[in-house]
Specification:
With 361 residues, this protein is an alpha/beta fold. 45% of the residues lie in helices and 13% in strands. It contains 15 helices and nine strands.
Length: 361
Protein backbone atom coordinates (compact mmCIF):
# COMPACT_ATOMS: atom_id res chain seq x y z
CA UNK A 1 0.00 0.00 0.00
CA UNK A 2 1.38 3.41 -1.06
CA UNK A 3 0.32 5.43 1.99
CA UNK A 4 1.20 8.73 0.32
CA UNK A 5 -1.08 8.02 -2.62
CA UNK A 6 -3.82 6.76 -0.29
CA UNK A 7 -3.74 9.90 1.84
CA UNK A 8 -3.41 12.12 -1.22
CA UNK A 9 -6.53 10.60 -2.76
CA UNK A 10 -8.36 10.94 0.56
CA UNK A 11 -7.49 14.63 0.77
CA UNK A 12 -8.65 15.20 -2.80
CA UNK A 13 -11.97 13.44 -2.14
CA UNK A 14 -12.63 15.66 0.88
CA UNK A 15 -11.91 18.76 -1.20
CA UNK A 16 -14.15 17.50 -4.01
CA UNK A 17 -16.97 16.95 -1.50
CA UNK A 18 -16.74 20.57 -0.36
CA UNK A 19 -16.50 21.77 -3.98
CA UNK A 20 -19.73 19.94 -4.87
CA UNK A 21 -21.41 21.46 -1.83
CA UNK A 22 -20.38 24.97 -2.92
CA UNK A 23 -21.17 24.59 -6.63
CA UNK A 24 -24.03 27.14 -6.38
CA UNK A 25 -22.20 29.57 -4.08
CA UNK A 26 -19.90 32.15 -5.66
CA UNK A 27 -18.20 32.82 -2.30
CA UNK A 28 -17.76 29.12 -1.69
CA UNK A 29 -16.40 28.49 -5.19
CA UNK A 30 -13.79 31.24 -4.80
CA UNK A 31 -12.72 29.77 -1.47
CA UNK A 32 -12.49 26.24 -2.88
CA UNK A 33 -10.48 27.34 -5.92
CA UNK A 34 -7.87 28.88 -3.64
CA UNK A 35 -7.77 26.07 -1.09
CA UNK A 36 -7.55 23.31 -3.73
CA UNK A 37 -4.61 25.12 -5.32
CA UNK A 38 -2.96 25.29 -1.90
CA UNK A 39 -3.75 21.63 -1.22
CA UNK A 40 -1.83 20.56 -4.31
CA UNK A 41 0.99 22.82 -3.15
CA UNK A 42 0.97 21.05 0.22
CA UNK A 43 1.21 17.69 -1.54
CA UNK A 44 4.32 18.93 -3.34
CA UNK A 45 5.84 20.14 -0.07
CA UNK A 46 5.19 16.79 1.62
CA UNK A 47 6.64 15.02 -1.42
CA UNK A 48 9.83 17.04 -1.12
CA UNK A 49 10.17 16.14 2.55
CA UNK A 50 9.51 12.49 1.65
CA UNK A 51 12.44 12.58 -0.77
CA UNK A 52 14.56 13.78 2.16
CA UNK A 53 13.48 10.86 4.35
CA UNK A 54 10.74 12.58 6.35
CA UNK A 55 7.15 11.36 6.02
CA UNK A 56 4.77 14.24 6.82
CA UNK A 57 1.10 13.26 7.28
CA UNK A 58 -1.59 15.46 5.71
CA UNK A 59 -3.60 15.46 8.96
CA UNK A 60 -3.01 16.42 12.59
CA UNK A 61 -5.43 16.16 15.52
CA UNK A 62 -5.14 18.97 18.05
CA UNK A 63 -7.11 18.81 21.30
CA UNK A 64 -6.96 22.51 22.09
CA UNK A 65 -9.26 22.50 25.15
CA UNK A 66 -9.16 20.37 28.28
CA UNK A 67 -12.54 21.57 29.57
CA UNK A 68 -16.02 20.81 28.27
CA UNK A 69 -19.49 22.17 29.02
CA UNK A 70 -21.04 18.67 28.76
CA UNK A 71 -20.34 15.39 30.53
CA UNK A 72 -21.17 12.61 28.07
CA UNK A 73 -20.98 8.95 29.14
CA UNK A 74 -18.32 6.97 27.31
CA UNK A 75 -16.28 10.06 26.43
CA UNK A 76 -12.71 9.02 25.57
CA UNK A 77 -11.41 12.49 26.46
CA UNK A 78 -12.66 12.26 30.05
CA UNK A 79 -11.62 8.62 30.37
CA UNK A 80 -8.16 9.30 28.98
CA UNK A 81 -7.54 12.35 31.15
CA UNK A 82 -7.60 14.85 28.26
CA UNK A 83 -10.79 16.44 29.50
CA UNK A 84 -11.20 17.86 32.99
CA UNK A 85 -13.76 19.97 34.76
CA UNK A 86 -11.37 22.95 34.91
CA UNK A 87 -8.73 24.26 32.50
CA UNK A 88 -5.19 23.23 33.39
CA UNK A 89 -2.28 25.60 33.93
CA UNK A 90 -0.20 23.22 31.78
CA UNK A 91 -2.32 23.83 28.68
CA UNK A 92 -0.67 25.40 25.65
CA UNK A 93 -1.11 29.12 25.23
CA UNK A 94 -2.66 30.61 22.13
CA UNK A 95 0.79 31.75 21.01
CA UNK A 96 2.15 28.21 21.37
CA UNK A 97 -0.71 26.78 19.31
CA UNK A 98 -0.07 29.45 16.68
CA UNK A 99 3.56 28.38 16.39
CA UNK A 100 2.50 24.72 16.04
CA UNK A 101 -0.13 25.47 13.39
CA UNK A 102 2.28 27.59 11.34
CA UNK A 103 4.96 24.91 11.64
CA UNK A 104 2.47 22.29 10.44
CA UNK A 105 1.44 24.47 7.50
CA UNK A 106 5.07 24.96 6.48
CA UNK A 107 5.54 21.18 6.47
CA UNK A 108 2.60 20.75 4.09
CA UNK A 109 -0.10 19.63 6.54
CA UNK A 110 -3.49 20.34 4.94
CA UNK A 111 -5.95 19.48 7.72
CA UNK A 112 -5.77 20.10 11.46
CA UNK A 113 -8.74 18.57 13.29
CA UNK A 114 -9.58 20.63 16.38
CA UNK A 115 -10.96 18.67 19.31
CA UNK A 116 -11.06 18.77 23.09
CA UNK A 117 -12.78 18.85 25.50
CA UNK A 118 -15.01 21.34 23.76
CA UNK A 119 -12.79 23.28 21.33
CA UNK A 120 -15.16 26.25 21.07
CA UNK A 121 -14.33 27.00 24.72
CA UNK A 122 -10.91 28.15 23.42
CA UNK A 123 -12.23 31.02 21.30
CA UNK A 124 -8.77 32.61 21.34
CA UNK A 125 -7.25 29.58 19.59
CA UNK A 126 -10.22 29.23 17.24
CA UNK A 127 -9.93 32.83 16.04
CA UNK A 128 -6.16 32.58 15.72
CA UNK A 129 -6.44 29.36 13.68
CA UNK A 130 -8.67 31.12 11.14
CA UNK A 131 -5.70 33.27 10.14
CA UNK A 132 -3.85 30.12 9.00
CA UNK A 133 -5.71 30.27 5.71
CA UNK A 134 -3.69 27.52 4.01
CA UNK A 135 -5.05 24.91 6.44
CA UNK A 136 -8.55 23.45 6.79
CA UNK A 137 -9.68 23.20 10.42
CA UNK A 138 -12.58 20.77 11.02
CA UNK A 139 -13.84 21.62 14.53
CA UNK A 140 -15.28 18.61 16.37
CA UNK A 141 -17.80 20.28 18.64
CA UNK A 142 -20.90 19.39 20.61
CA UNK A 143 -22.42 22.46 18.95
CA UNK A 144 -24.14 23.90 22.01
CA UNK A 145 -21.87 26.98 22.09
CA UNK A 146 -22.50 28.00 18.48
CA UNK A 147 -24.21 31.40 18.77
CA UNK A 148 -24.68 34.38 16.44
CA UNK A 149 -21.04 35.37 16.83
CA UNK A 150 -19.74 31.92 15.89
CA UNK A 151 -22.16 31.66 12.96
CA UNK A 152 -20.79 34.96 11.64
CA UNK A 153 -17.26 33.74 12.23
CA UNK A 154 -17.85 30.56 10.20
CA UNK A 155 -19.37 32.62 7.40
CA UNK A 156 -16.29 34.83 7.24
CA UNK A 157 -13.74 32.02 7.64
CA UNK A 158 -14.63 29.11 5.36
CA UNK A 159 -11.51 27.16 6.39
CA UNK A 160 -13.11 26.68 9.82
CA UNK A 161 -15.64 23.85 9.46
CA UNK A 162 -17.95 22.90 12.36
CA UNK A 163 -18.35 19.13 12.80
CA UNK A 164 -21.37 18.58 15.06
CA UNK A 165 -21.43 15.53 17.31
CA UNK A 166 -24.64 13.51 17.00
CA UNK A 167 -25.51 10.02 18.16
CA UNK A 168 -28.28 9.08 15.74
CA UNK A 169 -31.85 10.31 16.11
CA UNK A 170 -32.97 12.92 18.65
CA UNK A 171 -33.61 10.49 21.55
CA UNK A 172 -30.19 8.85 21.10
CA UNK A 173 -28.38 12.19 20.91
CA UNK A 174 -30.17 13.54 23.98
CA UNK A 175 -29.59 10.32 25.91
CA UNK A 176 -25.83 10.77 25.63
CA UNK A 177 -25.40 14.53 25.20
CA UNK A 178 -28.20 15.84 27.41
CA UNK A 179 -31.86 16.74 27.11
CA UNK A 180 -32.52 19.33 24.43
CA UNK A 181 -29.11 19.08 22.73
CA UNK A 182 -30.57 17.60 19.53
CA UNK A 183 -32.98 20.52 19.23
CA UNK A 184 -30.11 22.99 19.59
CA UNK A 185 -28.12 21.17 16.90
CA UNK A 186 -31.08 21.18 14.52
CA UNK A 187 -31.37 24.95 14.97
CA UNK A 188 -27.64 25.43 14.32
CA UNK A 189 -27.75 23.27 11.18
CA UNK A 190 -30.76 25.16 9.86
CA UNK A 191 -29.04 28.52 10.33
CA UNK A 192 -25.86 27.33 8.60
CA UNK A 193 -27.91 25.85 5.77
CA UNK A 194 -29.60 29.20 5.15
CA UNK A 195 -26.13 30.77 4.79
CA UNK A 196 -24.87 27.96 2.50
CA UNK A 197 -22.11 27.11 4.98
CA UNK A 198 -20.38 23.76 4.62
CA UNK A 199 -21.07 21.69 7.70
CA UNK A 200 -20.40 18.15 8.87
CA UNK A 201 -21.43 15.75 11.60
CA UNK A 202 -19.51 13.19 13.64
CA UNK A 203 -21.23 9.98 14.73
CA UNK A 204 -19.81 7.54 17.27
CA UNK A 205 -20.97 4.16 15.96
CA UNK A 206 -22.03 1.65 18.62
CA UNK A 207 -24.06 -1.52 18.87
CA UNK A 208 -26.99 0.66 19.93
CA UNK A 209 -27.11 3.07 16.98
CA UNK A 210 -25.53 1.11 14.08
CA UNK A 211 -28.85 0.36 12.41
CA UNK A 212 -30.18 3.93 12.59
CA UNK A 213 -27.03 5.82 11.55
CA UNK A 214 -26.52 3.63 8.46
CA UNK A 215 -30.16 3.82 7.38
CA UNK A 216 -30.82 5.55 4.07
CA UNK A 217 -33.59 7.68 5.54
CA UNK A 218 -31.27 8.93 8.27
CA UNK A 219 -28.71 10.09 5.69
CA UNK A 220 -31.47 11.73 3.66
CA UNK A 221 -32.47 13.73 6.72
CA UNK A 222 -28.86 14.82 7.39
CA UNK A 223 -28.54 15.92 3.78
CA UNK A 224 -31.83 17.84 4.03
CA UNK A 225 -30.45 19.68 7.07
CA UNK A 226 -27.45 20.82 5.02
CA UNK A 227 -24.83 18.27 6.06
CA UNK A 228 -22.14 17.72 3.44
CA UNK A 229 -19.81 15.34 5.29
CA UNK A 230 -20.25 12.55 7.84
CA UNK A 231 -17.47 11.19 10.05
CA UNK A 232 -18.31 7.71 11.34
CA UNK A 233 -16.12 6.83 14.34
CA UNK A 234 -16.24 3.27 15.67
CA UNK A 235 -16.66 3.32 19.43
CA UNK A 236 -13.53 2.53 21.45
CA UNK A 237 -14.24 1.41 25.07
CA UNK A 238 -12.03 3.98 26.77
CA UNK A 239 -14.42 4.03 29.72
CA UNK A 240 -14.68 0.83 31.75
CA UNK A 241 -17.97 -1.02 31.58
CA UNK A 242 -18.79 0.09 28.02
CA UNK A 243 -17.47 -2.94 26.14
CA UNK A 244 -21.00 -3.90 25.13
CA UNK A 245 -21.11 -0.85 22.85
CA UNK A 246 -18.20 -2.09 20.70
CA UNK A 247 -19.15 -3.51 17.29
CA UNK A 248 -18.68 -7.25 16.86
CA UNK A 249 -16.80 -8.57 13.82
CA UNK A 250 -20.11 -9.37 12.17
CA UNK A 251 -21.32 -5.82 12.82
CA UNK A 252 -18.05 -4.38 11.49
CA UNK A 253 -18.58 -6.32 8.26
CA UNK A 254 -22.17 -5.11 8.16
CA UNK A 255 -21.01 -1.54 8.73
CA UNK A 256 -18.48 -1.78 5.87
CA UNK A 257 -21.16 -3.08 3.51
CA UNK A 258 -23.68 -0.43 4.55
CA UNK A 259 -21.12 2.34 4.15
CA UNK A 260 -20.23 1.17 0.63
CA UNK A 261 -23.92 1.22 -0.31
CA UNK A 262 -24.46 4.65 1.24
CA UNK A 263 -21.55 6.08 -0.73
CA UNK A 264 -23.24 4.89 -3.93
CA UNK A 265 -26.60 6.27 -2.82
CA UNK A 266 -25.27 9.67 -1.71
CA UNK A 267 -22.40 10.49 -4.12
CA UNK A 268 -22.55 14.21 -3.29
CA UNK A 269 -21.90 13.62 0.44
CA UNK A 270 -18.57 12.70 1.96
CA UNK A 271 -18.70 9.61 4.19
CA UNK A 272 -15.53 8.88 6.18
CA UNK A 273 -15.02 5.98 8.61
CA UNK A 274 -12.41 5.92 11.37
CA UNK A 275 -10.37 3.87 11.91
CA UNK A 276 -11.77 2.24 8.77
CA UNK A 277 -10.55 -0.99 7.24
CA UNK A 278 -6.85 -0.84 8.04
CA UNK A 279 -5.90 -3.82 5.90
CA UNK A 280 -6.68 -1.68 2.85
CA UNK A 281 -4.56 1.16 4.25
CA UNK A 282 -1.51 -0.97 4.97
CA UNK A 283 -1.99 -0.57 8.71
CA UNK A 284 -2.90 1.95 11.39
CA UNK A 285 -2.62 5.62 10.38
CA UNK A 286 -1.57 6.82 13.85
CA UNK A 287 1.89 7.87 15.11
CA UNK A 288 2.51 10.10 12.12
CA UNK A 289 1.67 7.68 9.33
CA UNK A 290 -1.55 9.54 8.53
CA UNK A 291 -1.81 11.77 11.61
CA UNK A 292 -0.81 12.13 15.24
CA UNK A 293 -2.48 13.74 18.23
CA UNK A 294 -1.45 16.76 20.30
CA UNK A 295 -3.16 16.95 23.68
CA UNK A 296 -4.06 20.27 25.40
CA UNK A 297 -0.76 20.33 27.28
CA UNK A 298 1.24 19.83 24.08
CA UNK A 299 2.10 16.14 24.46
CA UNK A 300 2.58 14.42 21.10
CA UNK A 301 0.64 11.14 21.16
CA UNK A 302 0.18 8.45 18.49
CA UNK A 303 -3.62 8.76 18.66
CA UNK A 304 -6.33 10.11 20.99
CA UNK A 305 -7.04 6.48 21.92
CA UNK A 306 -3.36 5.82 22.63
CA UNK A 307 -2.43 8.72 24.95
CA UNK A 308 1.27 8.02 25.49
CA UNK A 309 3.97 10.57 24.87
CA UNK A 310 7.72 11.07 25.15
CA UNK A 311 7.84 14.51 23.50
CA UNK A 312 6.04 17.78 24.12
CA UNK A 313 5.52 20.44 21.46
CA UNK A 314 6.52 23.11 23.96
CA UNK A 315 10.07 21.84 23.70
CA UNK A 316 10.16 19.91 20.41
CA UNK A 317 9.24 20.49 16.79
CA UNK A 318 6.77 18.50 14.73
CA UNK A 319 9.66 17.20 12.65
CA UNK A 320 11.40 15.88 15.77
CA UNK A 321 8.18 14.14 16.82
CA UNK A 322 7.75 12.52 13.40
CA UNK A 323 11.35 11.27 13.45
CA UNK A 324 11.14 10.00 17.05
CA UNK A 325 12.05 6.35 17.79
CA UNK A 326 8.85 6.05 19.85
CA UNK A 327 6.59 6.87 16.91
CA UNK A 328 8.67 4.66 14.61
CA UNK A 329 8.21 1.65 16.89
CA UNK A 330 4.49 2.32 17.38
CA UNK A 331 4.01 2.49 13.60
CA UNK A 332 5.46 -1.02 13.35
CA UNK A 333 2.63 -2.33 15.53
CA UNK A 334 0.03 -0.91 13.17
CA UNK A 335 1.80 -2.28 10.10
CA UNK A 336 2.26 -5.70 11.70
CA UNK A 337 -1.43 -5.99 12.57
CA UNK A 338 -2.82 -4.61 9.30
CA UNK A 339 -3.97 -7.98 7.98
CA UNK A 340 -5.42 -8.94 11.36
CA UNK A 341 -7.51 -5.81 11.82
CA UNK A 342 -11.01 -6.70 12.94
CA UNK A 343 -12.52 -3.31 13.71
CA UNK A 344 -11.86 -0.75 16.39
CA UNK A 345 -8.54 0.86 17.23
CA UNK A 346 -5.39 -1.23 16.77
CA UNK A 347 -3.29 0.73 19.26
CA UNK A 348 -6.03 0.58 21.89
CA UNK A 349 -6.16 -3.19 21.46
CA UNK A 350 -2.36 -3.36 21.91
CA UNK A 351 -2.21 -0.84 24.75
CA UNK A 352 0.12 -2.99 26.87
CA UNK A 353 2.66 -3.22 24.05
CA UNK A 354 2.53 0.55 23.40
CA UNK A 355 3.00 1.15 27.14
CA UNK A 356 6.02 -1.14 27.11
CA UNK A 357 7.59 0.77 24.21
CA UNK A 358 6.74 4.05 25.94
CA UNK A 359 8.61 2.93 29.03
CA UNK A 360 11.78 1.94 27.16
CA UNK A 361 12.47 4.94 24.92
Amino acid sequence: MDINNYMRQGSIRLAQTAARFYRKSSTGKRFMARIIERMYGNMAVRGEYESQGLHVPPFLIASIASECNLDCPGCYAFAGGICKTEPSADNLSCAEWERIFKEASALGVSFILLAGGEPLMRSDVIHMAASCTDVIFPIFTNGTLIDDAYIGFFEENRNMIPVLSVEGDAPQTDARRGQGVSEKLDAVMERMKRLDLFQAVSITVTTENLRIVTDTEYLKELKRKGCGLVFYIEYVPAEKGTGHLVLSQQQVDQFDQSLAQLKRTFPSMGLVAFPGNEKFMGGCLAAGRGFFHINPAGNAEPCPFSPFSVMNLKNHTIEEVLRSPFFARVRKIGAREADNHSGGCTLFNFEAEVKDIHGTV
